[in-house]
Specification:
The protein is an alpha/beta fold. It folds into two domains: about 1-50; about 50-150, Alpha-Beta Plaits (2-Layer Sandwich). Helix content is about 50%, strand content about 15%. The chain has four helices and five strands, in the order H-H-E-H-E-E-H-E-E. It has a five-stranded mixed sheet with strand order 2-1-5-3-4, covered by helices on one side. Helix 4 (about 110-120) links the parallel strand 3 (about 100-105) and strand 4. The relative contact order is 0.15.
Length: about 150
Amino acid sequence: MTETSNQDNRNHLFLNSAIGFLGVLLIILLVALGSRIIYPRIAAERTTVDPVLVSNVIQLEVLNGCGVPGIATRFTDQLRGFGFDVVETGNYDHFNLSESIVISRSGQMENAIKVAKALGIPEEQVLREQSPDFYLDVTLVIGSDYDSLNF
């Protein structure tokens, strides 16, 4: 009788443990569900974005147009130090660009002019090439005159 009693106690212990675990899991799921119902309302109130703040962030890509290895990466660090958001670096379609140019991709020339002024590029070298395909504000193409820029 003792062996059956021990077996019954083990079965009860296992069942009680399983019920306790499932109960805790149910409570966690209910709390998660409740927070999903309540949280979006709170998050919607907290995530009002100031349009002035967003427009101050200028996203740009830096392209190597002179063929000097690593020049785009070096300018990326400098531009980030100026507070610009460099989202991409790479090579221009050719390496024989004599003067650096800044291209406005979003149509807001003010952003391109800010980048040009930060590097000391004349406004005559700021171009507008607006397209809905571009997800960034400005493209900087570094030419052979990179030594004369604010670097």
